[in-house]
Amino acid sequence: MTVPGLAAVSGDALAVPAQEPVQLAQLLQTTAGPFVLTRETLYRWTGAHYQSVGVDAVRADAYALLGRARLGNGTRLKVTRHSVSDVVDALRSVAFREIDAAPCWISPRAGDPPASRLVNLANGVLDLGEQRLLRHDPRLFFTACAEFPYSPQ
């Protein structure tokens, strides 16, 4: 997801148009996530599945992000517990999804296999119907991943 109006500047600094919590939450979603909020639990993508993450970890990410943010004129954003809370609250809105049960597709596309026939393994997602291995995909909401890989032999 591209966040309009946000761009990297020198080093680790990020240019932001204003101290807008929703835009900063969208940036946090792309730099430290993606995140999914469902059933009052916040999850972060690990590269293979979504893992529940505590609010303190998310607040630490928000502090780090705000510490890097600069307005267009180079001015640092004022980082306070209130500005961090505003970003974390906005992230909850940005990350919210109605999910009844895992596994499921967060944003399904034409051609995606039914999530009910998928198994999340160490080296990818096995489609039991097609007997083919798919890449791990943050659009697919799994909360666990088997430690062993798929081997067709």
What does it look like?
The protein is α+β, with helices and mostly antiparallel strands and 153 residues long. It has two domains: 7-95, no CATH class; 104-141, no CATH class. It is 26% helix and 23% strand. The protein has three helices and eleven strands, in the order ββαβββαβαβββββ. It has helices at 21-31, 55-68, 81-95, and strands spanning 7-8, 14-16, 35-38, 41-45, 50-52, 69-71, 104-105, 118-121, 124-127, 132-134, 140-141. The protein has a three-stranded mixed sheet. A hairpin with a 4-residue loop joins strand 9 and strand 10 (132-134). Helix 1 (21-31) crosses helix 2 and helix 1 (21-31) packs across helix 3 (81-95). The chain is elongated. The model is unreliable at 1-10 (pLDDT under 50).
Structure at a glance:
It contains three helices and eleven strands, in the order E-E-H-E-E-E-H-E-H-E-E-E-E-E.
What characteristics describe this protein?
three-stranded antiparallel sheet; 153 residues; elongated; 3 helices; alpha+beta; three-stranded mixed sheet; 11 strands; 2 domains
